[in-house]
Amino acid sequence: MLLNRIVLRNFRNYIDCEVDFPQSVNLIVGGNAQGKTSLLEAIYFLCTAESHRATHDAELIRHHESGFYLKGTLRNGRNDIVSLEALKRTRGQFTLKKNGILQTKRSEWIGQFNAVFFSPESLILVKGGPSERRRFLDLLISQINSEYLKNLQKYNLVLKQRNELLKQIRATSTSITQLDAWNKLLVMHGTAVIVKRLEIFDQLKDFAIANYLKLVGAQESLALTYRPAVMPGDMLTRNSDIDKVAKHFNTSLNASREADLQRGSTSVGPHRDDFLIELVREPKRTTAHNHREHNESDPQETEIFREVARSYGSQGQQRTIALALKLAELELIRHLTGKDPIVLLDDVTSELDDRRIKYLLQVLQNLSAQTFITTTDAEPLLYYLKQPSVLTVENANISYTIGVHSASE
Ligand SMILES: Nc1ncnc2c1ncn2[C@@H]1O[C@H](COP(=O)(O)OP(=O)(O)OP(=O)(O)O)[C@@H](O)[C@H]1O
Ligand SMILES: [Mg+2]
């Protein structure tokens, strides 16, 4: 899948900009605040119908303008040319068009053209709260499976209605029996969400751990555990069938009924799930000499050491975990859809050391995914890239830079 061309009108600091991407590796160079991240954001928006950083779509509209317009021309795996358009007015929802035809459902939009975004903000996956990790999983799975997003949307709707009913019951004399109908729907859609998350998470985990090991060497590993709120204690696994999950969900929902009524909100369900990220170290056995002298029965020395990455990991470790998760996202999308997602790397040189950058670019170039990389300084990246297009962004104008050569040319 290749993005051949993009048009940005009144998007962030862009007024009217058209740019072609003839190569698969595109290095986007420019000083601070020129529009590098905004260009990647536009590409990501066309693929996923959401921004990686904006809280409200209106933030994307150029100041004092009434709306933005984006158009991307892509070539898919079958060599068909597809046009994607996104338009947003200050008031109202954004509209999406594929080949000129209006698309009414976000669930049908996502997954056609996949993208993976890695930026300094990706650290939030490790440092942020559970909602960040759920968002990551939800978008990843939605790109792979459109049924998942439909179930998630239905679940969120039922959840909202159940919460309203809980508040009504608390405030008025509305009958409690009305809850049963909502519980049934909540369990139905919620179970589908949990089961899919468990299945995908299990595969994601393997890719992420393998990447982490390659990034840091053998001295340290990663443990990733999905934590469903309906059944604490890791008792649900990939092999948990729908009936088992539904049973647990039902039991937890009934057990928390009183608490839910008091709070006026639902305390169990996939909207409260999380995944735990831990750093794992083997016991230290440095030299053969030390090892011989060491008392084997000392429990301290034989125990595998685990610590929660969010609380105890260093900045470098947390960044590496975020990178390992993002690479796993990329590999998993590729593995399950057979298609390469577009890869967007924002400001990686400020984030990662040479070893990690080298590994990241090696993986990407082996996958042959179309890649867009932003940087303020092209030099260190040119060394690792094979024949990139080099584009310069200056005050929201993009031009090709002639006369730069990568080391591999
Ligand atoms: N809605 C908007 N309307 C107009 N300008 C905006 C809007 N949103 C952001 N900007 C401006 O767009 C400019 C470009 O932002 P962007 O994040 O793309 O910069 P960048 O090139 O990635 O810079 P850096 O190297 O600092 O990350 C900034 O000056 C920012 O203030
Ligand atoms: Mg930026």
What would a concise description of this structure say?
The chain has 409 residues and is of the alpha/beta class.
What does this molecule look like?
With 409 residues, this protein is of the alpha/beta class. A hairpin with a 4-residue loop joins strand 5 (81-89) and strand 6 (94-98). It is built from 15 helices and 15 strands. It is globular. It has a six-stranded antiparallel β-sheet. The longest helix has 38 residues, at 179-216. Helix 5 (146-171) crosses helix 8 and helix 6 (179-216) packs across helix 12 (315-337). It has two domains: 1-114 and 339-409, P-loop containing nucleotide triphosphate hydrolases (Rossmann fold), CATH 3.40.50.300; 121-338, RecF/RecN/SMC, N-terminal domain (Glutathione S-transferase Yfyf (Class Pi), Chain A, domain 2), CATH 1.20.1050. Bound molecules: adenosine-5'-triphosphate and magnesium ion. Magnesium ion binds next to helix 1.
